[in-house]
Amino acid sequence: METIEKERWLLAKERIEEIAREPEIDGTLGIYFQKTADFLMLMQKAWEKTESGTLKHASLEELKVWNQTLYEDIAGDAYQRSFANPSYAVAELGETYGQILSFVYAELRGMIVYAYEQRAEEMLIYMELFLQLHSAFCTEELPTKEELLQDVYWFISDNSDISVTRRIREQLDPSLSFFRDIIMEADLEDLRYLYQFGEYITDTEIQTSQYLNTLPLEEIEKIASVFTEGYRIGFLVNQKPLYKKKTVNIRYCIGFERIIRQAVINFQKMGLESILYRAAVSRVNMREANRIGCYGTSANRQYEYDHKGDAALFMDKAFVERKLGVLRTAYETYKELAEVHAGPAVMEVFGEKPFEPEGKAEALKLNKKQQENQVLLNSRAGQITNEYIKGEERSFTIIAFPVPDIGERFPEIFADTVKLNTLDYKTWQKIQQKMIDVLDTGTYVRIKGSNGNQTDLLVALKSMEDPLHETVFENCVADVNIPVGEVFTSPKLKGTKGVLHVGGVYLDGLYYKDLRLTFCDGMITEYTCANYQEEEENKRYLRENVLFHHKTLPMGEFAIGTNTTAYMMGKKYGIAGRLPILIAEKMGPHFAVGDTCFSWEEDVVTCNPDGKKMIAKENECSMLRKEDVEKAYFNCHTDITIPYDELGEIVVLHKDGTETAIIQEGRFVLEGTEYLNRAFEVI
Question: What pLDDT sits at residue 4?
């Protein structure tokens, strides 16, 4: 810490200690500042414990107690009486200050990360923000809401060069190795290592780590190899230059360190150094309630949901331009690192307790203009990212494993998931080619639901000029997208129409009841669900979490999932509703709203195993990329699956008026695909 910075630090610390003893403000505002000062003093302790190495030598019980102390204000029932809860904050502090000060408290909680990672600059600016706001209330005349809002706005805007630049560097620079160092250097059999990350640690992380420690090294190597080989094969199959790359980003959930350690070793053998960065903790770097990076169990998912709209405090056109400017400068600074970055390798988890968020009137929400600004920001940020990390040169892989929350049969489910992730892809490849051979002769595909599912869709297919050498569907086995299998296409929008309905589905961890989307020429024209009594609340829920503030979205993908083994695994253990979309999308036909699977890499040549070139890589929206890129991409892609037991038929319609059924009443009927029905007979 530099001398001037240290002086500021000591002055801020001393002043915060005084406020913790005596807030100097009457009433509930005084209570707010006193409690917040107490939290900041706790952050001082966290800094000191980390700096001195005390936490590395503490007992397991001491670490558990300390971890609970860091998160006790938002965990469990305590959240109902926390200023981090916007409902409580508004009730106690009033509408004038409640939402803003709740946001500030939530931002200050990011200091846990700054303390553990010893990021002095960010610690200091948040300490000084608190003092600035406190001084504003220590005057004869209290600040107006507008004045308080301006203080917060300019803090976020002025410091975006620190927060945004740091975020870009985290994603590209392997020398920022906080997570990797713990994973590679700690004794993973000593569960104290879990508390070195600074994340909320629960029985989920502990039991996951304990379970993986019971597996032989050969099993760990097998699991990690599927993960890393999928990544390598993705570059190979799509003819992308892995040899040019030097770094890979690993994203995972805490508890899986033994697998991740082996993955790091495997990637090293490929010539790739692993980058592991934490999920963002400042709203300026977040996108809604999504957590991208490395993280532990949420201390309170309602807390995260309550604050997903906090950008409403600063999301104006000036901020958009400010952040985009910082983003470009950051990428320019780290452009050499960006050029050799290969993309993400993601290990997801499933089995967490289902979460249905409570909609709160007091929670901040983007207004119509701010939603437009958010869409603009996402679009232009995507363009900048693609300029420096080119889509045609990067790839990814995704795999998923259960966590102990899934139930007492966790070991069995984990073992079956490993089997699922290692199914013989050649078997699926041959079967799926049979389907593609028929689909390629169609002009439309008709999909209808049954057993209460009201889906009735007509999907238009791109036509081919050279059927001997071209294909409209990709034969997807198990490389970037594990497990096998699906065949998918980018539908032609014109002529794609009808209703997509699912009785109940989880998308990105949020539950949707009676989800219904209506399409006309491939674009969503109506949308609703039955989560809330008020129809406007249902529309808002979808607009924020599925449409991501867009007025409409295209059907970017139509696919037929063929992994009946995965489907029956869900049935066997009663976990179908808790499987991640990565697996669920293979368990029936699915439809993605948003971008196609080929966004930013439409011109990259992709071929199926039979050598045929995939030509359905774009639609009428993405075709606009050379004229107006902001109209071409939507920066989202959400898969919605119809399970086999809600599926009436999938039928290919041919130009001559004939029809060929692929699935009827939830079973594969196309000749050559009967093998897929075997799984239905075994539970």
Answer: 74
CB atoms within 10 A of CB 137: 19
- For the chain, what is the largest distance between any 2 Cα atoms, rounded to a whole number of angstroms? 83
The pLDDT of residue 478 is 66
Q: Note the pLDDT tens digit of each residue in 44-58.
A: 999 999 999 999 999
Rounded to the nearest 5 degrees, what angle is found at the Cα of 162, between the Cα atoms of 158 and 167? 130
The sheet with strand 667-668 has its strands ordered as 523-528, 510-520, 492-507, 456-460, 442-449, 647-654, 659-664, 667-668
Residue type, position 254, single letter: I
Kindly indicate the confidence band of residue 604, based on its pLDDT and cuts at 50, 70 and 90. Answer: confident
Burial 43-58 (b: 16+ CB within 10 A, else e): bbebbebbeeeebeeb
**410-436 pLDDT tens trace:** 999 999 999 999 888 889 999 999 999
- Candidates 66, 141, 71; CA nearest to 106 is 71
Residue 668 pLDDT exceeds 80 = yes
CA 328 to mean position of chain CA atoms: 23
What number of other Cβ atoms are within 10 A of residue 99's Cβ? 23
Whose CA is closest to 238, among 421, 391, 465, 428?
A: 391
Euclidean distance between CA atoms 590 and 650, whole angstroms: 12
Query: Under a CB-based contact definition with an 8 Å cutoff, are residues 558 and 489 in contact?
Result: yes
Element of type H or E holding 255: none
State pTM to two decimals. Answer: 0.91
| Exposure string over 383-407, b if 16+ CB within 10 A, otherwise e | bbbbebbbbbbbbbbbbbbbbbbbe
How far is the C-alpha of 569 from the C-alpha of 464, rounded, in Å? Answer: 38
Cβ proximity of 548 and 572 under 8 Å: no
DSSP secondary structure of 564-619:
HHHHHHHHHHT-GGGS-HHHHTTSSEEEEEES-TTTT-TTS--B-TTSPEE-----
| DSSP secondary structure, 103-142, as one string | HHHHHHTTHHHHHHTT-HHHHHHHHHHHHHHHHHTSSSSP
Distance (Å, whole) CA 578 – CA 111: 32
Higher pLDDT, 629 or 436: 436
- Mean pLDDT computed over 57-64: 96
pLDDT at 683 over 60: no
In this structure, which amino acid lies at residue 94? G
Q: Is the peptide bond between 343 and the residue preceding it cis, with omega within 30 degrees of 0?
A: no
User: What would the pLDDT profile of 141-186 be if each residue is shown by its tens digit?
Assistant: 999 999 999 999 999 999 999 999 999 999 999 999 999 999 999 9
Amino acid, single-letter form, for residue 454? Q
CA pair distance 44, 83, nearest whole angstrom: 20
